[in-house]
Amino acid sequence: MTSTLRPSPPAPPNSPQQAQSPAPRSPRRRRSWRQALRRDWQLYSLAILPLLFFLVFRYLPMIGNIIAFRRFKPGGSIFGEYWVGLRYFRMFLTDPTFWEVFTNTLVLGTLTLLFCFPLPIVLALLLNEVRARRFKRFVQSVSYLPHFLSIVIVAAMVMQLTSIDGTANQLVNLFGGDPVAFLQKPEWFRTIYVSSEVWQTVGWGTILYLAALTTVDEDLYEAARIDGAGRLRQTWHVTLPGIRPTMVTLLILNIGSFLAVGFEKILLLYNPLTYPTADVVSTYLFRMGFQSSNFSYAAAIGLFEAVIGLILVLSANVISRRTVGTSLW
């Protein structure tokens, strides 16, 4: 016997089969930016002042970089008198003083990055292990306070501590040594500068890391404890990978400001005796521009510094994305 399969007859209208079939979805209409602005104008209005700040103090001053390629004279045109091309770039590239200053900038930037970047992570990990809330808040408050002090106050405190009659020399006298004029010795300037940076910035830098530590899943710690991991192994395999995106983001931002070593503090602490180790690109640029009135030469140096900083940020971002998988963009 042979059997043939016949197609089932179509279901009558308003049957359960037709009721169960999903209706075709209409394409979702995207709201235009005008509709979004009309709906959430209160939120967008909050961005007006920050945008104006960046426009006036960050983007409009970029127009002044034109004087790096033109001869500028005080009292003349703000865009320079006549075109000179790459003359000022050749001047500082062949100037041995500039390369000495550039070397000092690299050394101070490297020391600052080596000490001021990992120490906030270490302090945040230590504070995360503290269970006494009062002691934890006390340590946080004490470590945060130096960040709110003015650079002028910090520089004055450093000068007082390292003066001939200061606390540092009192300790030297206590151990039978002779007083040392620390701020007049080139070999001591880098130690003093980096130490003051650590004291002023480490506590404030822990805020982001402590916030990042709160996002780490507690179940991961529980699983690590079940596997027999101690506190150090939990920190290495759970905590540090959990805050790695924050670490990478801050590292890229710090590399971007690598050449912009603390201009204000160095300007207040250094003197002609410490120029061999204290003079950096920003202070050299300040002297060339405002003391020597060579604004075009200073603009060329500043543009060179900005281009180097941009290259460092882009390179660090690419390396981080390819090796760690985390980047700014």
From TrEMBL:
The keyword Methyltransferase does not apply. GO terms for biological process: transmembrane transport. Belongs to the binding-protein-dependent transport system permease family. It is a multi-pass membrane protein. This is Protein LplB. It comes from the Bacteria. InterPro entries: ABC_transporter_permease, MetI-like, MetI-like_sf. SUPFAM superfamilies: MetI-like (SSF161098). Pfam families: BPD_transp_1 (PF00528). Residues 102-316 form the ABC transmembrane type-1 domain.
